[in-house]
Amino acid sequence: MSKIILAIETSCDDTGIAILKISGGKQKPLLRSSSFAGQATFTLLANELSSQAHLHSPYGGVFPNLAKREHTKNLPILLTRAIKTAFKLPQGRTLKVPQGPTFSQFEKNPGIDAIAVTIGPGLEPALWTGIVFTKELGKKWSVPIIPVNHMEGHIFSVFKKNGKKFSTRPNGRDISVGRVPNFQFPALSLLISGGHTELVLIDKKMSYKIIGETRDDAVGEAFDKVARILGLPYPGGPHIARLAKQKRKSLQGRTLGIQKGPTFSRLSFPRPMIYSKDFDFSFSGLKTAVLYFSQKQKVLTDKIKCAISKEFQDAVTDVLVYKTNKAIIKYKIKTLIVGGGVSANKNIKKALTKMTKMQKVKIFFPEKNMAMDNAIMIGVAGYLRSFEKIKKGKLRAIGNLRLHK
Ligand code: KG4
Ligand code: ZN
């Protein structure tokens, strides 16, 4: 027996819709029992994602009402495509792409057992769009709705491996990915995205405790703001990473005697809160250091931009690695799960991998395209939590929803 879940993600500037078939697991009725879902194999039937980054680019960040408008426009279009792909509608039977938020196309349930939807954290106008859409579908199709915490989605994003099929097996001690029992507790999650920077302690029951978080800007936000200072497009993370790589390459060339000219190797930005006693972070001072340094330059040449990018990225990496390492030692962590858009950063990835190797800790990253916001991770988290009772009135957008169970 299998279940089919439709997952909807609209917390920020990406509209995501995924359809997942789940087999195995305990297969109790959805939303009834209070236990974790057991081993399950997920098959990805459809995955649709529409990024609005280009529309928000002129604002240097996400503009909430624009995001809301775009989600409203995108949701019916993406759902139509996803249903077509997942249920392989025979030739001739076509679903017309609806214009605007109309539900007339979705009168008949194509075979969905439950809908998982992100309820927070995120931008409330954006979250509401997904929730209202989900409620409407839930009513039409008479299926249960599973509210999902976006950050838990990022944690579970590491489950998807290699192609369309992947599985989980929580047995109280380990969670297996595929057949390998390698997800061991206590685990720690470093969640680094445009909206969050958190260190989360995870016990064997998959309950959470936030042990550290940013006191001001999130890491991704700092990448985006620094990119803006340097005149680079939004989202800035990948652009900063690209320029930092150029600088690193030029330094390699220098040691080989290939390149001449100033290197700005003495450029140094602060590592905020690196030696603070807690596990909190702060990135706004680092961004300000970049701003002041940039303002002092007569011209922000490409060379200077590359030097700034590298030093900024190194500073962020140092802080993240140092604090995560400290938490691993203190809490005797066995598994580190890294999630969120910034986990795609190769420099950070490499440094965290090196550190966990020394600590003999297993490390998981989301595979390519799973680091950024998407609906697959919402479907996985939704299924794994679907066995818990949903409290009445829980289906509302909660912009500052926290990760604790
Ligand atoms: O998780 P995500 O897609 O959305 C949020 O929930 O925030 O993360 C987006 C963030 C943006 O700030 C973006 O600049 C950053 O992730 N990002 C990166 C990289 N790719 C995306 N930051 C650093 N290096 C990257 N390669
Ligand atoms: Zn996210």
Biggest sheet details: 8 strands, mixed
Give the total of domains: 2
Backbone CA Rg: 22 Å
Strand and helix order? EEEHHEHEHEEEEEEHHHHEHEH
Shape: globular
Heteromolecules bound: 5'-O-[(R)-(carboxyoxy)(hydroxy)phosphoryl]adenosine, zinc ion
Low-pLDDT segments, ≥5 res = 29-37, 97-101, 170-174, 176-181, 259-264
CATH topology of the largest domain: Nucleotidyltransferase, domain 5
Mind telling me which CATH architecture of the largest domain this is?
Answer: 2-Layer Sandwich
Secondary structural class:
alpha/beta
Distance between the termini: 29 Å
Strand content: 15-25%
Give the class-level CATH name of the largest domain.
Alpha Beta
In DSSP terms (H or I, runs of 4 or more residues), the helix count works out at 10
Fraction in helix = 25-40%
What's the overall average pLDDT, rounded? 85
In CATH terms, the superfamily of the largest domain is ATPase, nucleotide binding domain
Total beta strands: 13
Strand order of the largest sheet: 5-4-1-2-3-6-7-8
Keywords for this structure?
13 strands, 21% strand, 2 domains, eight-stranded mixed sheet, 405 residues, binds 5'-O-[(R)-(carboxyoxy)(hydroxy)phosphoryl]adenosine, alpha/beta, binds zinc ion, five-stranded mixed sheet, Nucleotidyltransferase, domain 5
Helix and strand layout, with pairings?
Blueprint: E1 2-9, E2 14-24, E3 40-51, H1 53-56, H2 64-86, E4 114-120, H3 124-141, E5 145-149, H4 150-156, E6 165-170, E7 174-177, E8 180-184, E9 187-192, E10 197-202, E11 208-213, H5 219-229, H6 237-255, H7 284-296, H8 302-330, E12 335-339, H9 346-359, E13 362-364, H10 376-385
Parallel strand pairs: 1-4, 4-5, 9-12, 12-13
Antiparallel strand pairs: 1-2, 2-3, 3-6, 6-7, 7-8, 9-10, 10-11
The protein binds 5'-O-[(R)-(carboxyoxy)(hydroxy)phosphoryl]adenosine and zinc ion.
